[in-house]
Design goal:
Chain lengths: 300, 311
Amino acid sequence: MTTTSSLERAKASEEPAARPGWTAKRAVLTIALTGLVAIICLVFILPAVWILIGSFRPTQEILSTMSPLSWRIVIPYQLTLDNYTRLLFQTGFSRALLNSALVCVASVVIGLLVSAMAAYSLAVFEFRGRGFVFALIVVSFMVPFEAIAIPLAQQFTSWGLGNTLIGLILPGIGNGLAVFNLRQYFLGIPKSYREAAMLDGASEPRILFFLYLRMSTPALTNSALLIFLSQWTAFLWPLLIISDSKLQLAPVALAGTFGEHSADYGQNFAGTVLLALVPAIGMVILQRFFGQLSLTSGEK
Amino acid sequence: MAEVPVTHVKISSRRPARRGRAGRKLEGLWAAAFLTPALLSLIVLRIAPTVGAVSSSLYKGFPGGIIPATFAGLHNYEFLFSDPQFKATIFRTILFNVVINPLQIGLALAVSVLLVQNIPLVGLWRGLMFVPITIPIVGSCIAWGAALNPQGPVNAFISAVGGSEQPFFTSPDQALASIIMLASWIGIGYWMLFLISGLQAIPEELYDAAKIDRAGPIQTFFYITIPMLKRPLLFVLVADTVANFVLFVPVQMLTQGGPQSSTTLLMFEAYRTTFGYGSRNTGAAQVVLLTVIMLFFVLLQFRLLRQEQEG
């Protein structure tokens, strides 16, 4: 459905250009608009380019080319992997990255399981209060986690979950958006499939895991990415419940090295690039899904 | 089906799923069993801390936590509101949000409108605007912390075009504005994603009709684009407001609330009170106030934009 509509859209947007109204005035306008867009994009991209290039330069060179303004700020004299090797092998950052990866994978697996079960229940079974339960789950998980992170961290600590991986994973498993997203997708699967499977004697878990989940790859991918990214970029929560640096996650570990003593920009930038790689890939996949979110709620 | 765990039966027996047939009843059991983990996590991760924060805010605690806290009613709130510094923090937080949310959404809308025009390489431009979002906020803070360093590249640019160098994060007059800039660098591209989809969903016929009626681009924008974009606009405005009320990382990483408390926002203040000063109960009261103020602004936006739609 989305492919056809985007095709139509593409057709529709091509049309005006082909019309006879294409005049010199229009060409000037197009050039001016393109120039404006290019300048805006340049402003937005420059800090990222600076970080990326800087991560391959010695810190001394980053500092000496910062000011006064010259092309040298983004054109390096020498390229080196030194920042990365120092960061990964001489600091605890590789361990922090590993911790982050572990927490993310565990959160995705458990979070998808919990969300898919809830979504299945809310999509296929008809029971009194179904709409209410659905709204309750989605709305309460929409309340920003940061707002309750402080009281929750105190409770986690008193339950002995401070400085544990479980303490890091648990907040990642409840995701209202994942439940919402999976339920919408499940609603689109014809009921007759489930009835047929039941006639064959399949149990509900079997129908969920071998029928519904197999048919829901896009929704599962989006939900998995949502959970993954929220855990990968989490800062406040690990800061609150982890005090043991061996268990710390990558964002907090990276923040800890910034501004400490003299700034080692080269290493900081390398850490930023490493941390940004994973979300960059994930966000490109999620880009389309995000756009649809604000438009269709309840369609399909 | 015989292997239904006993616990599930217990939980679901509360549910009035009897509609005569055994199949219905079994469905009810499964529905409850499948919902249990999600509802449990809801209770543990959301409801318990909310209730905990509210109740904790009503107790008077003693630093160190050796002496048990005693019930004190609204004492913590009275104490907070008698503190001019805290009142300034609330005012600052509200001011910050009143500025940053319309600013981000306005600029995101402007960029989105530009990026749905018929210009060459539009996919490339959209992709470039998207880059800041892919960087985790810790990385963005590093980038802007370094770039806005008084001896950094932004000042180099300013002096190259003939301006005088600025102190940015080191000045009480500019630190909060610098945080707004940093947050908008991420936010504009992010909210743009939603708005571009919204713009693309507006039927082309409406624009054709406007053209036939000889409407200029400004008229078209205000009489077609904006009304048709109401739903995504409300969505991004509310989501942005929520995100900015709990904005924490830049303050924690770059300014620690300073200089001279100029960047002490309520979220950071609640964190510092609870963990820095160890005043759990006062911190809980601050968390409650933060949530109440945030909800107030969210509801206000719903109310205002709904009314506008009706009128």
